[in-house]
Amino acid sequence: MNKNLIKQILKFLVVGGTAFVIDYGIFALLTQTPIDCHYLIAQVISFTISLIFNYIASIKWVFDAKKQTKKEAITFVVLSVIGLVINSILLYIGVDLIHIHELIVKLFATAVVMVYNFVTRKLIIEKHN
Predict the structure, then answer these.
(1) Which of 2, 10, 74, 87 is such that its CA lies 20 to 30 A from the CA of 38?
(2) pTM of the entire structure?
């Protein structure tokens, strides 16, 4: 691997780690406190909030996209919605079908989607810059 790719992966991990803390923290707050929000609703809320942070940080710092076009922004949103669907399906399978606690499944689902996010953003977003 070249130096720039390693640096980019490290930046992605910092942004992704921060987005994860936001996502997981809000998810836990909504599902494990007296708020007692259904895990799939909590998933949409926490994922969306972390997505906003992740979008801004990814474009400005990780992928160094100087000028974001409307098409690229729409592509980012579509890819993110696919990530949300993947995350939600994995949560449903883990919680409702396999009966694993939602906080444990959330960890696994987030890891899967993090890999998906990096690959798709690298291939699609950087392709336009």
Answers:
(1) 74
(2) 0.84
